[in-house]
Structure formats: structure tokens, C-alpha cells
Amino acid sequence: MGAPGSFFNRIFPRDGLHLVHSNYAVHWISQVPSSIYDEVGSSMNKGNITVSEASPPSVVKAFRAQFQQDLRLFLKCRSNEVVTNGHMILAVLGTSSMEPRLHWSTKVLSQAITNLVSKGLITKEKAHSFAMPLHFPSKEEVQKIVIEEGSFTIEKIETIVEDAASEVKDVEVRAEAISKAIRAGNEVLVSHHFGDQVWFDLYPELKQAILLHLKNEPVEMFNIIFMLKKIV
Prior knowledge:
Blueprint: E1 17-23, H1 57-81, E2 82-93, H2 104-118, H3 124-128, H4 139-149, E3 152-163, H5 171-194, H6 198-216, E4 220-230
Parallel strand pairs: 1-2
Antiparallel strand pairs: 2-4, 3-4
Helix pairs in contact: 1-4, 2-6, 5-6
GO molecular function: metal ion binding; methyltransferase activity
Keywords: Magnesium, Metal-binding, Methyltransferase, Transferase
Pfam families: Methyltransf_7 (PF03492)
């Protein structure tokens, strides 16, 4: 069953659901934290479209705090909708480390945007002001929030690491498949900031960035699966 609206609000009737499945959703936070911008609206995370190893500690803290706030709200909203002893399966796209690390999917997108800046197709100021509301959590981070929020018990945790589009053996075709997936997941946000026309130039750069990445580094999907049971 699906319903319109934000999952950071109530969207289903109270005590009406026996099973909820959230897949690759909660790493999207409700907003880019306002505290990453200074008093004149300039980002303190210049050169990064989300948290990376190069991000200032204050930026890392802000994104993490926003994620924690949002996940607590998500759990509270779902607890109102799920019957007692009902279940929720939460599949989270995360990371194996608590340390700030740029996810490979945002790394290649960031590189493609940087390439357009170097070619004079978008301005540096426009690129530096772009940020994505993303936080890739660790298993421990999600586990801590679930326990502290208190609406659900954790019945099982499992991590699954798999290569993106690993079934495709031809590297060019694989890069194309991954490029399409990244565009599908990010097109609206990117177009809203840079304009719809940006993809005519950005997509070839994105595919090239992925090709280079495939030759040097893995494109792993670190999946964290939680089976939760409502207790209150």
C-alpha cells in the first residue's frame, strides 16, 4: 500500500499496519541543515555536495544531527501506524564506518559537476552552493537511534555488501546502467538547482566519471537491514 505525502509525517491510519517495508529511503534527510551556511548564505562545505572526508567537523555534526532527528521522527510516525507486535523491515543504504566518508555515488556526481565548472558550463558559485540532503549512516548509528527512540525492538540486523550492477560484465554497459540509476535518483534535485538543461552536459560527464571509478575502485552498495517489532 502506498500513500502520498512525506514519511516524516503520519501518512497511514493509527494502528492500521501489520508490516511496513522501507527500502533505500531514510538516508534521504528532510533538508540540508541550515547551519552549514554562514551569515551571508555561503556554504561551509564548499566543493562537497554532501559530507566527505574533507568536510569541516561542524558540517559533519550538522548532517548527523539532522539524520538522527529525522529518523526518530520517522520511527515515531510509523509506531503510531503499526499495530502492537507489528513489524517493520528497514533497508538502509549506509556505510561500514562511523567516520565521514564520501559515498562513491555522490563522489562521481560531484566530479561530473566539477568537470562542468572547469569547462565553464556552470559557475563555481553555483556548484559550491549545491548540497544534497543525504546522510549514509553506519549500522551502529541506526541501532542507537532505534534503541533510544524506544518504539521498536530490534529483532535482527544484517549487512549485505554488493557491487552495483555486478551482473553486467561489459564495463561500458555497466557504467551506462549505473549512470542511469544515479540520474533517476538525483535528477529532480540537480535540475531544481542547475536547471533542466544541465543534464545534456552532465550525463556524459557522469558516465565518464563512473568509468574511471570502475577501473580503480569498487562500487559497493553497503546495505543495512533491520527487522523491527513495535512494542509500544
